[in-house]
Amino acid sequence: MPALYLIPVSESWRPQFNRTVNTPITLNTDDVPEQLAGYDSLRVWGTTETDSPKKQAHMDRLESGDWILFYHSGEFIATGSVGRIFESSTVGEWLWDNPESSFIFTIENYEDTAPSIEHVWDILEYDGRQVVNGFERVRDDRVQRVLTEYGSLETALFDADRTQIEREKSALEAALESEPQLTENTADYTTIRQRTRDRAFRELVVEAYDETCAVCGASRHSPDGTPEVEAAHIYSRSENGRDDVRNGIALCRLHHWAFDTGWIEITTDYTVSVFINPDREEYHEFEQLDGQQIRRPNSQIPHPDYIAARRQL
Ligand SMILES: [Zn+2]
């Protein structure tokens, strides 16, 4: 079971954090200490030896693959996992001019995006907690409860973070004030941010269509009330199609599949156009949809620019 560490980055260490964790250090000079040799670049963090038995016990148990949430001034600022762990005052001196920072670990899977602090306290059941005061290992029974409920720490920390999802939804709604843009520069977003955006996009599109398929009007739900309809990108994701609600359409699984495979298309006057191939049985299943109006939330959605761009692919 991976452990979860909460690691504070103090105000005075923030510049060093930015220099060796937020930006990977390049290791192409001659004076690289042997413990760091053999790498082109690495993200590295260190902490000082401690006279606190509690902190020491936490540090001693740190293992490769454990999760880290970096904390600064009231919020989590970054996430990552532990790579290698070693002690070296030489490395502390070389990186931070501080031989005392000799308890060193490398950081993998780093993201400068983190879950909201409210969400972290919520899933870990820390009622009313506010701050992280020291290098800390979250108690195993708390982590175990999270794993039982969510399946993985990653899912619990990021996919279930309502605060961040609502933040992304507000950003996507604000973007509706601007002219629609066809594509997204995916390099703008870290993996975690992109996952949160995907989730926000899906929720907004499904809500806009009132959980109903735009083609057939089906509105099925699972026993727990989860809608069956899915949010499809009109100008597709594989073309870097933008996460703009005007580029979304809610479709049941069958019609999502038919849309993806080319059996049905949407025209700029919001009708369904069925691919003609009477030799296939599926054609006869879909043909009666041809020329039907799709259901849409209002005249702005979906935007004809996205529909036209898809039809040109
Ligand atoms: Zn449908």
List the helices and strands and how they pair.
Layout: E1 4-8, H1 14-22, E2 25-26, E3 41-42, E4 44-47, H2 53-61, E5 67-72, E6 75-87, H3 89-96, E7 103-111, H4 117-123, E8 136-137, H5 140-150, H6 153-159, H7 162-174, H8 191-208, E9 230-233, E10 248-251, H9 253-261, E11 264-266, E12 272-274, H10 281-286, H11 304-311
Parallel strand pairs: 1-5
Antiparallel strand pairs: 1-8, 2-3, 4-7, 5-6, 6-7, 9-10, 11-12
Helix pairs in contact: 7-8
Give an overview of the whole structure:
The protein is of the alpha+beta class. It has 2 domains: 4-159, ph1033 like fold; 162-311, no CATH class. It has helices spanning 14-22, 53-61, 89-96, 117-123, 140-150, 153-159, 162-174, 191-208, 253-261, 281-286, 304-311, and strands at 4-8, 25-26, 41-42, 44-47, 67-72, 75-87, 103-111, 136-137, 230-233, 248-251, 264-266, 272-274. Strands 4-7-6-5-1-8 form a 6-stranded mixed β-sheet, with helices on one face. Strands 2-3 form a two-stranded antiparallel sheet. A two-stranded antiparallel ribbon has the order 9-10. Strand 11 (264-266) and strand 12 (272-274) form a beta hairpin. Helix 7 crosses helix 8 (191-208). The longest helix has 18 residues, at 191-208. The two termini are 46 Å apart. The mean pLDDT is 92. Zinc ion (ZN) binds at residues 213, 215-216, 218, 251-252, 254-255. Zinc ion binds at residues 213, 215-216, 218, 251-252, 254-255.
